[in-house]
Amino acid sequence: MRLFVQIPCLNEEATLPLVLATIPREVEGIEEVEILVVDDGSTDRTLEVARNLGVRHFVRHTRNMGLARSFRDGVDDALAHGADIVVNTDGDNQYPQERIGDLVQPILRGEADMVVGDRQTATIAHFSPFKKAMQRVGSGVVNRAAGTRLPDAASGFRAYSRAALMRLNIVTKFSYCMETIIQAGNKRMRVASVAIVTNPKTRESRLFRNVWHHMIKSGQAIVRSYLMYKPHTVFATLGIVLGAVGAVPFARFLYYWSIGESGGHIQSLIFGAAFLVGALECLALLVIADLQRSNRALLEETLERIREIQYRDRASLGAAEAGPELDTMAGQLGVEGSLRASLSSTSQTP
Predict the structure, then answer these.
(1) In this structure, what are the phi and psi dihedrals at residue 118, rounded to the nearest 5 degrees?
(2) What distances in angstroms separate CA 268 from CA 220, 238, 243, 254, 322, one per listed residue?
(3) How many angstroms from the chain centroid is the CA of residue 91?
(4) pLDDT at residue 317, as a whole number
(5) Tens digit of pLDDT for each residue in 188-218?
(6) Which of 18, 52, 124, 340 satisfies CB 3.0 to 4.6 Å to 93 for a cystine?
(7) Residue-range domain boundaries for the chain
(8) Burial class (CB in 10 A: 0-12, 13-18, 19+), 190
(9) Are 300 and 167 in contact (CB under 8 A)?
(10) For the domain with range 2-222, which CATH number is right: 3.40.50.620, 3.90.550.10, 3.30.9.10, 3.40.120.10?
(11) How would you label 294-318 residue by residue, b for 16+ Cβ within 10 Å and e otherwise?
């Protein structure tokens, strides 16, 4: 059993040594523990520090590509090197790396495909009351969309099984956190949670400018992911509401018509017709979304099979040809990249 601990970094030369020092090199049930640093366009000595501290696996972006792309490229490299479990932590030392052993245990016991570290946000001192409230609301929305019961859906301290990563597809450009939970829940994966206590804050977040920016971006990711898997709920509900509202003016017109006073109530027909047209448009969008969902399911199954072949072949050839240290540039194989682009296009709102 091979565990890869993945560390996305953007100018983390100061905190990376703290992260690396606390990653356990031996974990119960794991034969090998490897560390993978994803350098997302750092302009400081992050890579040099990692190499000096014995890190052998790297993914390097020549410019900043964002957290979602860093996660995706890191996972690709880890799976290519035979990872059975991938743990994601942060380069700012926010998470307690010494709890990695606890984080992977539900996967090793066969109880979960994905494990999320619960930061217990209500107890974090530097979180404002508003931010704590928004964390609860956001987690509740994600759980409703995914059918899960996670207390901290935004946590980036996570463990994934190899099988789970084969089935997950990241199409958002902001953050993978919400999207992977919604995908996992709707694909009937087992998602568990482990309570953790975060380390003291070392710097401000570089993922978003402020709380409102984070809320808007997270909201977009949630809506987009929700529409991928439950378009019926959105468009059917909206269509029923518009149809019901549109039926009221028609009923009003028919009432006056029945008593012989319909002459001055033509506006009711116009008003009702506008809402009924909206209801019909929702029905059309529902049909299109359903077709796209079917197409997406076929593309995901194809991509999963390609990954199985790709990673098996690369794992057997990579070590002998590339050496222990692989510096992977941003950019994927042509076939997989084309399928990812197709998945991204089918996930757009109709």
Answers:
(1) -85, 110
(2) 36, 21, 14, 10, 73
(3) 19
(4) 60
(5) 999 999 999 999 887 666 566 666 776 777 7
(6) 18
(7) 2-222, 231-297
(8) middle
(9) yes
(10) 3.90.550.10
(11) eebeebbeebeeebeebbeebeeeb
Classify residue 237 as exposed, middle or buried by CB count within 10 Å of its CB (0-12, 13-18, 19+).
exposed
Encoded tokens for 285: 């969008």
CA separation for the pair 115, 113 (Å, rounded): 7
Could you tell me what percent of the chain has a pLDDT over 90? 49
H or E element, residue 261? none
Most confident of the following: 94-103, 118-127, 178-187, 317-326: 94-103
- Alpha carbon 55 to its chain centroid, in Å, reads 26
Count other C-beta atoms under 10 Å from residue 267's C-beta: 10
Residue pair 279/242 in contact by the 8 Å Cβ criterion = yes
Could you identify the residue written with the tokens 């448009």? 281
* Structure tokens that stand for 83 in this block: 């990872």
Determine contact, residues 104/111, Cβ cutoff 8 Å.
no
pLDDT digits (tens, 9 = 90+) for 249-258: 888 888 888 8
Q: Are 70 and 172 in contact (CB under 8 A)?
A: no
pTM (two decimals): 0.78
